[in-house]
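Fold this sequence, please.
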Amino acid sequence: MAESRFRVGYALLPKKRESFIQDSLVALAASRGVDLVRIDAGRRLVDQGPLDCVLHKLYGEDWRRQLEEFTAGNPNAVVLDSPDAIERLHNRISMLQVVSELRVESEGESFGIPNQIVIYDKETLFDMDAWASLKFPVIAKPLVADGSAKSHKMALVFNHDGLNKLKPPIVLQEFVNHGGVIFKVYVVGEYVKCVKRKSLPDVSEEKLGSLEGCLSFSQVSNLTTHEKNDDKYYRLMHLEDTEMPPQSFMTEIAKGLRRAMKLNLFNFDVIRDARNGHRYLVIDINYFPGYAKMPNYEPVLTDFFCDLAKKLGKDLAKCSGKGDGSEKSEL
């Protein structure tokens, strides 16, 4: 009797495909009964297969129609993730609204989002009343977050003079000092992993008074006498000594986001408010992030595919047990 296999078709742009579909992942998945199969974007999805699962990060109405057609013809197959669920993350206001609606019990920690407003036109940009709830500096982000190069163009604005360079529609998010460290929380189904990374340096009140206009994120290193990418500077900030957020607290937030957004593959960026060491702020959420940067991503993703196969009734003999990266949350 032929061995049962679980076929996962992936539809990714070239850059994403190169970073995610690495030989190490393909080999490990195959050894446990999971075949990663490239979907040819030049052919209709329904003409390819058979597929038990479609893993994708493509957009557009044509692709959406193809997924609907595929789902109609393959009702037992899984699409990761739903285009409707993903679309919510393409707008930086609706993206973080779900965080504000979450309720997580914690004895010592609290969480939320920074103060922010959306500016749709130049007139509102220079309307002082629209700024009543915000304090400089602010981070200016494009309203649309679709993964394009344009959507990643952000700036730190120090005063009203810096508004002239901005092009609405944009989101203005109050910058919160956070010790130059950002926490990236990766979610893969029920798995949750938090890592720490370098971030923008703090801006003191004294420094703010001497700064003018705005700086793109690539220029923010000018805020300090040290270069932002200088390891010596970040050692001064004690990145290695920075305490991680409580794992259970991050897991509960991840659990709430996963259920509310109906997404399996995402990460969210968290900062610790320098004014209150027990206050955490979610500043961004990304669908299908760069998992290759996550420690042990190969066994984590393979475990996820195996769990998915089991839920779909696929009996994969080699999928019993977990890989070295298994670290499930209690969902």
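The chain has ten helices and 14 strands. The mean pLDDT is 88.
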